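anyone else get weird line breaks when pasting these?? whatever heres mine. first is seq + tokens for prot A
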Amino acid sequence: MHQYEFLGQLVLIGALAIVNILVFQKIRIPPVIGLIFTGVMLGPTGFHVIRDSGLISTLAEMGVVLLLFTIGLEFSVDDLKKLQKIVLFGGTAQILLTGLVVALLSYWLMDAIGTSVGSKEALVLGFSFSVSSTALCLKILSDRGEIGFDHGRIALGILIFQDMAIVPLMFGFSFLTRGSSMPLEASLEEIALVLLFTIGMFGGFRFLMPKIVRVITELHAGEVLVLGALVLCFGAAWLASLIGLSLALGAFMAGMVIASTDGSHRISRTIDPFREAMTSIFFVSVGLLLDVNMIELPWLVAIALVVLVVKAIIMTGISMALGFSLRVSLMSGMVLAQIGEFSFVLAGTARSAGLLDQHMFQSMLAIIVVTMIVTPTLIAAAPKFAAQMAPVFGFMPLASKPEPKQPARAAAGLIACRGEIHAAIIGFGLIGRNVAAVMNATNLAYTVLDTDRKTVKTMRRQGEPLFYGDCTERKSLLRIGVDHSRSVVICIPEIDAAVQCIRLVREINPGAFIIARSRSLESANRFYRAGADAVVTEIFETSIQMFSQLLKHFRVAPETILTQQEIIRREGGNIFREPASDADGSGSDPAVK
């Protein structure tokens, strides 16, 4: 029965992973770290229990494919078009700058551990390390609900380009191979064929995928839905591999096309359990790859930290050059600072071509794993770190490009004092646009602050009083007149940025009425503590609308419905404010009441 030995390995991995995750959650360490640590424990660096990791690597690659497929289901083709500037310009700059800078640094950093490198090896190190982890970044951002944020959109755009750049990078490594006689014309012809087939495959997806999804979702058979979802995911990945693209990129393209269909939510719900299981195995496989001499480990950790800092700085500068604020740019730099799973592929290609020896290959793997291990902590700390550091680096030329201050659009009336603004709106998403529309319709003066330069430029042409800036910067808030506004409406989804904004507004204009949106009870509590006067909590407002519609259906008097709405809102506000009073010892424990 030795042919079923892999089942015992999977059981061992699952059991140990569960124990590690439970322990790590107790000490507030992300589960991803527990999974990587599981692989380290079972691999050659630890107890070396799992010696043949071939099946594990296969399952891990399937996990990455499923992850990118589900991420694609959250983004339509139209969403991708909005990222084209980030993908094309930002992605190209990130790969080239990071590759060259890390290559130059490799000459003297590798000497620190007694391993000299030549120009070819340095270029291999530089461009292998330029790639970030698609699986890790998108998994963590998705779990935190931050893919739709500015730094999440930057990360997605850069990661898409990196996945597309894997094939050209592998072609580039072929030119570095010792004794390579591959003619330039043949290489360019092969790259052109890959691009041609990619365009053709994407066009085929757009034509066929909606029809296939319609068929499998209309049959109302659970088995067909599960099998159909898996066939679409892995079929697209397989087709991509045939033309030299990464499996994950093919799955992402398929998911993105399916996202525009009506059945995308059913496909996503069906594929989720498989994704969670397989991506967990992927993170375990990362730890299994680590096999280094413990004497060299401190030097490798130091090199990994240098790479993290260098990549973060480069990505921050690129994001600022693309027009994003310093705070958002710092967050994107921290998100993309690590080295990714496709670096394993590039390093393996270089080793097979004779550009790297086994010792250098294992050193690279150790550096990659170290950067991936610290990534969850970096992403979690990014919002607070960026909010604290953005004012420190405010002197930088690209940190904040000032715009000529313009008066708010003149309102027909209801201005209490000359120059006074009724409301300063932070964020011009769906909620901010609706607030601005109502303010305009009721002749109330307002200004808007947003971090999207393109939106600001477009809307100002239409007469909207929009200004570019970051709400965590005092000068940006002053630019929109927060110091003389009656109220401030905070419509952004980023919790840490909103908290910082509330505190700044309270310092600048203590008498302003501050109202903020909140997705959860925890964030609402933080907003009240920071100084908000009112918080619209989505969970409360949804429940209020639901019971109001129900009472209307039962013909309950409108006065009674309004009374019940007021009770819910008042009690909700009291719940939020109780911890604030407890902080100074003047309140009582709500649990005792």
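and prot B, same format (seq, then tokens)
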Amino acid sequence: MSLRFPRLALAAALACAGQAAHAALQPAADAPLARRSNSVCHHLADNSLDCTTENQFTILKPAGKDLLSRIDFTYSDTDSLEVLDGEVRQPNGRVVKLDKSQVETRAAPNPYAGVSRDKQTWIAFPELAVGSVVSYRVKRHMASPPLSRELLYRLDFDAEPTRNDSFRFELDSPRPLLWRGEKMDDFKIDASADGKRIVVEQKAPRYLNFTNEWNNSALRSWPRLSIATSDSPQSHFGVYAGRYNQILSAPLPPAAAAEMEAQRGKPAAEQVAAFMQHINGHYRYLNDQRLAERGLVPFTLAEIEQHGYGDCKDLATLLTAMLRASGIAAEPTLVFRGNDAQRPLLPGLGTVNHMIVRAVVNGKTEWLDPTNPFFAPDRIMPDLQDRTSYRIGVDGQVREENIPMQAATLTSRSERVETLRRDGSAAIAIRGEVSGWPLVQLAMQDRFQGPASSDQSLCRAVNKQPRECKVDRPATGFLQPARYAARIDSVDQRAVEKISGLYLYDPGLEHDWDGFASYLANGNQTDVYLGDAETTERAVTLRGARAIQPPFSCQASSRWYDLSLEQRKTPDGIRYQYQLTRKVRWLSHDEIASPEFIRFNEAARACAIQARQIIKL
């Protein structure tokens, strides 16, 4: 059983728009709310949990009224939640008690790609004002997930627009508890002599929130604590291994069996691609919890085929069965899906949110996700890289394994010819190919917005002011090829800028390096997500151009990037060769602010700026 510290689902949350003028830790003086919290939880013999929580909020700023306009609690229909009492104490001392009419329980909104029976209880407090003190007590019973025998409770103190003036959490259990923490210096943690009771208390008021950070950035480390009844993955997940292997021992249902027979004898990689295509074509990704609260337990193979849909554990189980029936080693594997995944402090249900398949194809490990509407062979998707996984073996053993980061590969190569005109325009001819994640992104835009939208995006990406742009490329589909070729022909009306009888050519290669310099100047604090490690290559020929500066080449290297740029004369103009390799998926704040990265960024920017030059026609 896994639980995370219950964070309020607050309506009317604050939104930020526009470019950051300055990014930094938000001062506590700007906090819109202050909170005092006390929770007492009892772990019961049946692995369920009873928790009573008291929260008191003081509204410090007008924005605090919006954050407290409605408080939502969403929970499974196998759980129960009772609002014991509540009140608003006004700045003048008047107390308004919470009325039953201000508490409502209803069906929770269905999640994306899912059908659930979850419930939602909300509280709407009246007469809120700056200085009002809002208090409530709730009691919640959380049933143990099916088959679960172990407890995992997580406390996460990540950034939020609430000043925490006091926090106390108490958990007792009939079984000994163990705990592991990270960055918990601001908290006192006491365990009883028998290990069956743990109390966590905040030492002093604390506030952690950020303003004006980049959209592609995130705080990836914060104070957190895990409390569990076991530190063994086998104890937490082994009970599911028996049920999975029981389901997998059944015969394949008719459609899956027919597909397996149709692929028999073909190379293993072709069979894998065919099975992924079969599941994508015949089943939709849908988490259906109407029939029962299944937790990590999938439907049977026959039920999955009968339904024609399934969630991650259903589709992964069916794919595992098809692979095994074809003689390909495969294991259902639990993982946390997302661009970033913290290493679990302790194992348990709260450390995973997704199931995939680990297969060995021609001696190489593949991490297969049948919930995606695409398949790129030999690639680990960005939301599965560099994280802990738990694979369920045919012997019933659960083995912890790290999914590696995808090594950098050549994902984009282009040959661009610009035939320059004296009015500053140019006829543009691009011949290029893409693979990996850029190709997946193109296929996704084709699927959800249509190829015409994708073609417009491509034309805008390669021209400053496109006209008569024509894109010639094959249709994208579920199976991503190793290389995907495309041609773009257009007229760029602003290929170069006229300056006193000369022309300025600017390919914009310094954009990323300017961005990191701005990050430091603005005081940004969070880590930056870059995407897959990759190499891109560009060759650009400016026909009809004569360079004023002599030919040059430059390089900049680091443990994060390698950059090389060369410019030389050709019989008909100027030619540029540009290559950039990104070696990492994330850049931490400490890395960006390090002297080593600053030196590299300055060298990379200086190199890229050399491509901006005055030319003659």
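btw re prot B: The CA atoms of residues 2 and 350 lie 5 Å apart. DSSP finds eleven helices and 42 strands in the chain.
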